[in-house]
Amino acid sequence: MPRPHSRRVTNHPLDRNLEGGPTPERRSRGIVERVERPIADECGRPSRPYRAVDTLAAMERRGSITGGMRQAGEDFRARFTIAQLDPLRAPDLSRPRERGASRFTADEPGMRIEGARDAVWRAIQAVGGPASPAGSCLWHVVGWEQSLKEWALGQGWSGRRVSQETASGILIAALGALEMHFGIKRACDISIS
Predict the structure, then answer these.
(1) Measured between alpha carbons, how far is 134 from 126 in angstroms, rounded to an integer?
(2) pLDDT (tens digit per residue) in 102-126
(3) How do the domains of the chain map onto residue ranges?
(4) Nearest to 124 by CA among 76, 57, 169, 54
(5) How many angstroms separate the CA atoms of 117 and 26, rounded?
(6) CA–CA distance from 3 to each of 6, 163, 169 (Å)?
């Protein structure tokens, strides 16, 4: 029996035409849901915005990864964002550049960015390096927020493509190693009976 190419959820509650909700184009790119608790908007009024369900949240809901693994992934993504390693860049025009000013103080963004880059590099090294499947998966799927399918289609080792199921396994293993690296999981629970 052939498998369908699209795994889009049909009859999802957000597929209804909601006033002020996500557009059909946005919903076609993946699952979008309302946040659980109201948050303040730019004027301080309570609102309930929508958010996209990312790969880590979807995997935790399915039971593929633990809460600690998701936390490790979120920590990695936060460091990756601070390190400004995403492929899209624009100069910060609000900050004037001074000629000859190459030293940063501890409270300026330069040291914070360099510290985050060092943390990202150590995390990538902990899972096998940037050329390893786990390191590449963390960089692209968690850091750049590509889908697992996009990453799997673009990767190959020893001339062989990576299936989406294999890519999922690579990400799970990388998140487990990352969980240990960040100290979220202190010791393995190994019991031999």
Answers:
(1) 10
(2) 555 544 568 889 999 999 999 999 9
(3) 18-53, 55-88+107-185
(4) 76
(5) 32
(6) 9, 14, 20
